[in-house]
Design brief:
Layout (H helix, E strand, L loop, with lengths): L6 H15 L4 H37 L1
């Protein structure tokens, strides 16, 4: 998942995030990232559904 990052590098990144944002802000950041990812997935699913509907309609028109 993290490619070539080892445990030490991940630990340093986590410590840097704690220093920059503080322990109180991290849950807020995680919540915001989660909401953003949820909205993105919903938008992707909506587009996929629209494309599938268009494909079905196109195939019906060709027949």
């Amino acid at each position: 998942m993290f490619g070539s990052l080892g445990a030490t590098e991940i630990l340093l990144i986590v410590i840097a995030i704690l220093i920059l944002f503080g322990a109180k802000r991290i849950p807020e950041l995680a919540k915001g990232i989660g909401k953003g990812m949820r909205e993105f997935k919903k938008a992707v699913n909506d587009v996929q559904e629209d494309l599938q509907i268009d494909e079905k309609e196109d195939s019906k028109k060709e027949k």
